[in-house]
Amino acid sequence: MGWRDRVQENERGRGGERMDFTSALLLVRISNMGLGFHGCVVIMMDDDLSQWITLPKYSTPYIKGIKDFLENAFPKFSVGDEMLCPCKNCRNGKWHTQDLIYDHLICHGPCPLYANWICEVSSKDHRIDIERAENMGFEDSFTFGDNLDEMFHRTNDTTGPNDDAKKFYGHLEEGKQPLYPGCKKFSRLSFIIRLYSLKCIHGISESGFGDLLELIKDAFPEAHIPLSFNAAKNVIKDLGLDYQRIHACPNNCMLFWAENEKKNCKTCGASRLQRMFMSKELSELMLWHAKGRKKDGKLRHPADAEAWKALDARYPQFSSENRNIRLGLAADGFNPFRTMNISHSTWPIILVNYNLPPWLCMKQENLILSTLISGPESPKNNIDVFMQPLIAELNELWEVGIETYDALTDHTFNLRASLLWTISDFPGLAMLSGWSTKGRLACPVCNYETSSMYLKHSRKMCYMDHRRFLHPEHPWRLDKRKFNGQIELRGFVNHFGGKKPEKKRKRQKNKIKSNSPFKKKSIFFDLPYWKHNVSRHNLDVMHIEKNVCDKVLGTLLNIAGKTKDHIAARLDLQELGIRKVLHPVLSSDGKHLEIRAAIFDMTNEEKDLFCSVLKNAKLPYGSASNISRCVHMKERKVSGYKSHDAHFFMHYLLQFAVKKSLKPEVAVPFIRLGAFLRGFF
């Protein structure tokens, strides 16, 4: 006998009295357990969350539900004696009194988008009373099966928002209220965030911010704003926009966090990831890498990269859920003060969400500021100490996951995340990876086969022999004159991969001296999948372009302090015995050295032409900043440009400038360099 037949039979047994769907389904479950009709558990419900709002609008349960909703909603969501009306016509967009909203809900019915919310608010002060029949002899701990509780407790169902999502949506709805009745420019939430932003920008103290709130409330009694700084901060905190301050030892040796603190620390990164799925549009975009990406073998997105594919192949359980998030970590240091003579360093650690399409993943609103390290100096190798909370959370997101509500499917799921790689400049790579980027073994690709030498006069390390990366039949491999005076027959360097090598140590006077370029084991190896990542640490191309641009412009224009063609460099060439035409010579009086002009040296007229090309370039709107402000015609130099300006210089402008002012044998390599860099983008 099917469950519908059982319902009909039970209705006939009760003299034709109609039962609601939930009670009938409960009877079926108990009948299937062999208890029979007379052994059922009677459940008294004041209002059935899944039923009353679907009943006819003239029915008694529907009218009672609307009254309960208005009684519970008005004390919390009203402004004055009005509230947003959730009927079909108003759609939560018009303000009305309680009586008028009652009439609208009875006449027009509720808007389907707000039906679940109306049910929840109406049942807020109601409880489910469970009574047992007199002849029942079961224990209080008796249950009816795996899914019975889900029929009566809607919050336990994976369909619909979970508790965190409900709380978040509740705060959003509350924040959408106008600042005061009739206000159209500001909502309560937008005004609080705007005011809080001004506090941060102008350095208003907490007490001053609280006094300002009191003054606004006294001047505008109808304004719906918090009365204290803590109340305003809690509004922002409940939306997941807060931060946690974790103190560190002055010597950067430990954090006062986790077991070293009385209370456990929590970070807000996971909640930011959950928020991605609380919007239907954004939740759909989070699946772009799997459903919207064009898969033709070309590299357009990190999902096309070998690192992404290798992680998916090794961990199929993780990759089977397209909503699981792949992250990148970017870190760099800067001085937040405009006067650079102040000793201070700030290191933001930012997470990049690669599930999003490429035109969105790098937008400011989609970046997650997970950690902000601020102090009098750079954390250097001790940066791992400050990343402990982040790594702990990444481990939890990988091994356990976090229950997340997906607005697109209206279900909750277990969200997991993995870290694909880090992005930094070259000094930052040393801090994150543990590989020293200074000294004889500075190259993380060549590692122990790095070709390096110390330049005696320039007092720095120089890294040579790049021709080994050329094709075996490339003519430059046999060119002695233009390079180091030797031919190059060696092959490619095997990429350093896998696990961290064992350190070779020597004991000298009770001190341990290490010959390994690794100065530490990176904290990223605490992630169980990190050792299997194909590309663990990446360099930021724009940082490299900025450095190359500085050296090129400084050398071509012979800018003091920035040119690489100076007396020390010429003496090093003489020491190496190469490029004899560039060796310095004694002056006629024999008291000082003179250097001959190199092939790339320009006259003042050529420098003026070079600078005028950059100065007068007309660029499309929005493609770059005002580059002409960086060109100083009188001093014949270029300075004050940013990383993106250097990016634009190297890709588009430098080729025109060198073609106009330099010889072809010098201009052609620069033109090819620009084409090579454009190939990355």
Number of strands: 19
* Mean pLDDT rating: 77
Distance between the termini: 67 Å
Quote the beta fraction: 5-15%
Biggest sheet layout = 5 strands, mixed
Can you give the helix content as a percent range? 25-40%
Q: Which residues sit in consecutive blocks of at least 5 with pLDDT less than 50?
A: 1-50, 125-157, 262-269, 497-513
Q: Total domains, how many?
A: 6
Order of neighbouring strands in the sheet with most strands: 7-6-5-10-15
Write down the Rg: 35 Å
User: Number of helix segments?
Assistant: 24
What does this structure look like?
The chain folds into six domains: 3-158, no CATH class; 168-237, no CATH class; 258-430, no CATH class; 435-519, no CATH class; 542-555 and 602-678; 566-599, no CATH class. Helices cover 36% and strands 12% of the residues. A five-stranded mixed beta sheet has the order 7-6-5-10-15. Helix 1 (3-13) packs across helix 2, helix 3 packs across helix 5 and helix 22 crosses helix 23. The longest helix is centred in the last third of the chain and has 19 residues, at 643-661.
